[in-house]
Amino acid sequence: ELVYSPLIDVKEYPENVDVCLVEGAVASEADLLKIRRVRDRTRTLVAFGDGAVTSNVPGMRNPISTEPLLTRAYLENVTVNAQVPSQVVPRLLPKALPVHAVVEIDVFLPGCPPSADLIYTALDDLIAGRRPDLSHRARFGR
Predict the structure, then answer these.
(1) N or C: which end of the chain has fewer CB within 10 A?
(2) Residue 126: closest CA among 43, 49, 50, 53
(3) In Å, what is the CA distance from 7 to each residue of 11, 110, 114, 140?
(4) How many other CB atoms are found less than 10 A from the CB of residue 58?
(5) Is 23 exposed, middle or buried (0-12, 13-18, 19+ CB in 10 A)?
(6) Are the CB atoms for 19 and 71 separated by under 8 Å?
(7) DSSP string covering the chain, please?
(8) Is residue 24 within 8 Å of 51, Cβ to Cβ?
(9) How far apart, in Å, do the first and last CA atoms of the chain sit?
(10) Are 26 and 93 in contact (CB under 8 A)?
(11) Max alpha carbon distance in the chain (Å)?
(12) In terms of C-beta density within 10 A (0-12 exposed, 13-18 middle, 19 or more buried), how is residue 42 classed?
């Protein structure tokens, strides 16, 4: 049963979730609060894709830091009342982090995106109540 996703209009992450596939890096204060809540309420947490596993593309901002990034995105080359949004855009963390840097991860599915075979194998194992052993199937950079 699917209980939480962008496809379902549920505003609060439910209690007692068996499996959660989380994608993307932890890049903002909102992300940090949400992933901690998800970890507390989920039995098996899966880092799904290179964004969650390594911080991948969001992590490209890490050497720059947030101020120059926000200045470039919102203030440069703008002529009328430019300002960095503070209500619509969540406050960024100093660095974008892979999910395992913030909470414990049970299963890692690398790839951008993970291969269909890797996803199938992991989900098939999880549905059957087995912990996926992807050591022979999953490699970074593929």
Answers:
(1) N
(2) 43
(3) 11, 23, 20, 29
(4) 20
(5) middle
(6) no
(7) ---SSTTS---SPPSSEEEEEE-S-EEEHHHHHHHHHHHHHEEEEEEESHHHHH-TTGGGGTTT-HHHHHHHHHTTT--SS----SSSSPPEEEEEE-GGGTS--SEEE-SSSPPHHHHHHHHHHHHTTPPP--TTT--TT-
(8) yes
(9) 30
(10) yes
(11) 58
(12) buried
Token pair, residue 81, equals: 């009342």
Q: Which of 52, 140, 139, 67 is nearest to 97 (CA)?
A: 52
Q: Which of 19-23, 28-32, 45-49, 81-85 has the lowest mean pLDDT?
A: 81-85
- pLDDT tens string 47-67: 999 999 999 999 999 999 888
| Per-residue pLDDT tens digits for 9-23 | 778 899 999 999 999
Do 27 and 98 touch, CB atoms closer than 8 A? no
Q: Angle at the Cα of 7 (from 29 to 84), degrees rounded to 5?
A: 35
- What type of residue sits at position 16? N
